[in-house]
Amino acid sequence: MKSLKIGVLFSTIIFLTSLSTTAQVNAGLGIDHASAVDEAGLDLRVGYQFNEHLNLVGDFSLFFVDDGGRYVKNRYWNEFNINLHYFFAVSDTKFSPYALFGLNTTFWGVKFENQPGMGDYEDTDSEVGLNLGSGLDYNLDKNFKPFFEVKYLMTDDFNQGNITFGIKYVFSH
Question: DSSP E strands: which ranges in 35-118?
């Protein structure tokens, strides 16, 4: 399954780089909620808008999970996503709906301190999976775009829903 995911990613990148472009770079900041950890997180993203329909977005989400116990020094849950956003043509509106498809890597861990019988140790893991979802940009002006996004992450070991609210800045050229 991993080779299929990598093949899809490279095929998408090759396809996108072959398009005639009127490219724009955008960057954003948002607040996430992930169902698997039931916690809020910070979403940082950078996008490359190839044309009016296609935007390739890389985002990193850092979730603020609680320590979870007496011997737990800290826990973490983070995601890195690469998604292709396909914007639907909608005329005479400030809203821009899109569908998304992509790949994710989720990594998590817990660090224990003074655990009876075990001392200090760390347990970590990661998963690669697929993303499916949709979103909506609000074209506030030519540079600022508040957005709302819902996506479903599917891996071999878990599935989770993510909801993100944020704002993007479009760098004009």
Answer: 39-49, 54-63, 72-87, 95-115
